[in-house]
Each structure stands twice: as C-alpha cells, then as structure tokens.
Amino acid sequence: MPESQDGVEAVSRSRLALAAIALLACTACATSNPAQQSTTVAIEGDGTVHIPAMAAPPSTFLSEEGKDYLRAHLQAGHDPDLSRPVAEQGGMPSYMLPYLARMRQLYPVTREERQIAGVDALVYTPRDGLSPENAGRVLINLHGGGFASCFPGCAELESVPLSALGGFKVISLDYRQGPDHRFPAASEDVAAVYRELLQTYRPENIGIYGCSAGGLLTGMALAWFQSHDLPRPGAAGVFCSGLAAQDIPFGGDARAFAFPMGEGRLAPPLPSANAPMFPEPSYLAGASPNDPMVSPRMSDEVLAAFPPTLLITGTRGMEMSAAVFAHGQLVKAGADARLHVWDGMFHGFFYNPDVPESREAYDVMVDFFQSHLGQTDAGEPSGTGPYPALVEVDPTLPRHVLYRPARLGDVAPGTLGLALWGNGSCAADGTSARPYLQEIASHDYLVIAPGTVRSGPGGSGPPETTLPPDLVETTSSDLRMAMEWAISENRRPGSPYYGLIDEGQIAAMGYSCGGLQAIELAADPRIDAVIINNSGIFPDGATRIRNLPVERDALNRLHTPILYLLGGPRDVAYENGMADFHDIHHVPAMAANIDTGHASTFLEPAGGAVAEVAVDWLNWQLRGNEEAAQTFLGPDCRLCTDPRWTLERTSPE
What we know:
By secondary structure, this protein is an alpha/beta fold. Helix content is about 30%, strand content about 20%. It has 2 domains: about 5-30 and about 70-370, Rossmann fold; about 395-460 and about 465-650, 3-Layer(aba) Sandwich (Rossmann fold), CATH 3.40.50.1820. The chain has 19 helices and 21 strands.
C-alpha cells in the first residue's frame, strides 16, 4: 500500500466498494515491515504471537469456483487497470463490471429511479412481479462503499439477487456520503425514507440491510430510529460489517490474519494515541467512536431493541472479527441474532453471482427475510383453519389489535371477511379472547378488537389506573373506527389488505359489555351478520354505563340475522340475552346455550366449542356456506343433536 496520502486516496477510490471502511480510520496507512524469518513460533509476555513466514493456500472447504474467485480477487486488487474506478458506477472497481452484467443476465428485475422523502433511490422489483407473500413487504438496501462511493454499482449488486430470488421490492438509497457530507447525514436520510415508507407498510413488513459501510449504516440507522421514536423494522441484515466503525479493521484477530489473506496486503497500522479515530476527509470525521449512533455495539440497551438480525461474513473478511463480536454482543443483550460465516471467503464475497458460495449466501438472506418479516412479539400463528393467524398491532391503527392470516399472500382477492369485536368489560384489552379470535381469523377473516396487547404472550398487563365504575375504556365508536380503517385499507393501493377484503362480509361481535357495543354497531347498514356472546341489553332499559347508552330499542334497528351464544342459566347474562332473543321478531334470530356459565370457551385451545359455532355462523351468513348452515338448520342440525347445546330459533313475523 503506498505510504503517501495521495497513494491512500488513489487506493480508496478503486477499492472503496469493498475495503474503504478500513481506510476511514487512518490518515496515512503505511505497510508494516515483514516478520523476521524464523522457524519457531515466539510468544511475548503480553500474549503477542510471532509466526514464521508462512503460505496460506485457499481453504479446502471452498468450491473450485470459489478458489478461482479468491485468486482472481487477490490479483485484481493489485492490478491498477483492473482496479480502475468506474465513474458511472460510483467509483466501483472495473473488475466488478462483469459481476453486474451477470447479475442482470441471471436475475431479471425492473429498475426505477425515484426520489423518496427527498432521497434519490433505485427501486428494484422482480420482472415477473412480487411474490404474493411479499406484496405488503419491502426491503431497504444501504450499499457498500466506505461512506464515499459505489452508487449505483454496489447498490445493484446487493439488491438484484434478493429482489429476483425472493420476490421482494428492494429500495436502494443514494444516501449522503463523505467527503462532502458528515455523520449523521446518512442516518437522517435512511430515517426520512423509513418514515415515508411507514405510511404504506407496517414496520414489521420492512427489512433493512447492507454490506460493508451499508452494513454498518444498517446498525447506525436502527440506533437512530430508536432515538427518534420510530418503530423498529421487522428484520435487519448486517453483511460484511460489524457494529462499530473502529472494529474494521482494528478489532480482533481479523486485522492480523483475515485482512492480509483476503486483501493481499497488511491492515493499516493502529492510529496513534493522540490521533483522531476518524480523520478528515472521512464521513465520520469528528464523530465519537463511543457514540451508540456511530457504534451501536457500545450500548447494550440499543442492541437489546434490535429486530432479528442476520450477520454474514467470511473467514478472510477484514470485518470477520467485528462481525463475530457484534453477534456475541447482540445475543448477550437479548436480541435475536444469526451469524453465517463462509470459510475462505473475503470481504463482500457475494458480489460475484457465479460462485456457489454467493448463491448460498443469497439463499440465507432470502430465507431470513422471508421468515422474519411480518412476525410480531404476540405469539406464533395459530388456528385450525386453512390460514393460521397471527396477532399484531398496526402502527396506523395503534389502539386496536388485529387477528389476521399470517400469510396474506395466500388469501384470494376479495375473500377476506371482517369481524369487529367488542371486548369483555368493554376493556381496552384486545387480547382477552385471543384463542377464540385467532381461531376465527384462521378461517379467512380479519378480526379487530379495540385496545392493546395486555393478556397472553407479549402482554403489558392491566393498566395502573382505573376508570370510575360507571365508565368503560372502549365504546362502539372504537369498533366503527376499526371498520372504517379496514375499508380504507382495502381500497388503498400499497396496503397489504388492498383488494383482499369482501366488504359484503362484515360482522359485529362482542362479549358481555362488548356485546352491547356489537348490538349498537349492528344498526350500521354495512354490517351483514351479528354474534352476541354472553350478553344482552338490561331488561329495564336502564343505562348503567355513561359512555355506553344502549337502550332496548336498539334491537329494532337490527337488519341482519343475529346469533346469541350464551352460557346457560349459570351465565349472568343469560336472562338478558334470552330476553333480547324473544323480543326480536323482524329478523332471523337464534339462541344457542352451552353450560359454561359466563366464561364461555374463549381461552380453550382454538377457542373451544363456541369458536366452532361462531365460525359456522359467519361462514353461513356471510358466505352462504351450506355445510356450515347444517350446524343450525333442520331438526337434525349439529347443534340439535349435540348434547352439549340447546338451540332456539325464531323467524321474522
């Protein structure tokens, strides 16, 4: 490596696409003297090991193509012609141009130039369209290049394979870099784009990743999101990097071993004690290496809030020690972190798509994002229906809990039913009947309950303060808000629910106090079916709840069939519910009782017997399913012959 500053800048222009992070931390990178010739290993008192001059052949674990690739990479890095920077690709070395050509040949995508939140970007989509499961997902790519170069070249090499192989939309950002810009300009750009994407995508459906400087920027951006109260994305990829700029290449054994074996040159010397860690003219000049916004691994609190994170490196990658250490720090902090290491591979090795090791890396990346995007902390998908359902809170409807098929891509357009649920006690606990609602959702329904995740996995527990006894936390307006939101999402291009919901399949449901909310909402002409669980209007018509004024004349406004699911005479709502049932004469009504008392079977596996009946009622009333109708119709109906149940039916007069 040349000893002059001019020499360093010349090298950085041609090598920044793969190795410039190493140059960020030194002003003049002089090559150390070769080790003295010796035939024995010597050990100093501080543990420094002197190794005799030795040869390092390619790893025996590399494919034959991988061995050829390693040789070509090392030779190209020392060939001025092959390392010549290509201006139209942002200074990417010319030896990487064939990689771009092969990417375009192997992985057909469409590329669109856009500006998002004032940041220039390239948007890649598969030529054959997004895969169904990824219709509501997006990946943000942060390209490599040492915070100084390599857009659009590195952006394309990192984005094309994931877009084509995974069926993803990938947005690669031309974030601000040095020497014209300084930290935190790039983090601000990423946050601006992320904030804009949150208008269209749920945070758990957004992935963010990058290689080299882009991998480090991924970690920096996640820390920046936390400090600016942005929700964490669904998954992250820190590739060819660690989580602190000073770790590359000054951290761990990689400086002595991986760097020279992967780049064919010694690592730059450590800066002197009084020299700045990030000197001019680098992007990080003036930044503190102890700032978690610069070096996220410096804060366990920051790392603990990371989303599931995939780290990828090679044993000859200058960042190998930094990546291994970052993985350990993430795990220690309690984050979900995965580390994949390719033996014998070097910094940014997967830029060449013709090497088996690169294709293996693509598969790992695609599988990681495919399996982690869309997941929440509220438990695994469940339900006995054909669409196992998950529980989540959408940032655009933050005071409600959603139950929906985990893989919306499997739902046929225009088939998703909508059920609006009122909670017991009219509480703001959207997960108080989780197994019951999750079971209904698994049969191709979106179920929305007001409140937050209080009960069960990921629950926050009861609130610290209580309302006066004559008030409740939620009202029927919260159910109506959920209906308006779902209809709006169904009609909004870019929404994960766009075109999925059948607006002729909307049901009002509720338990106990929430059943009164459902009765009040049932007057809305958009409601097509009603289920009342363990509830009924007070016989004397007294309004005992100030913000839930449901009088008995609300029954006269029903315009759809209604089913009361009650717990028998032991149910405190039995008399109210049966009184309602007997007073309804203008629409079909049924009352089905099972001896559960007021508790029902909501918390039993798959919602128990009551969930089976509720699903059949919805499928019959909303979808005209004749098999489901047999649960209720005729003298030999399933409820009629099941000894657990008693069924009463009325028809309009």
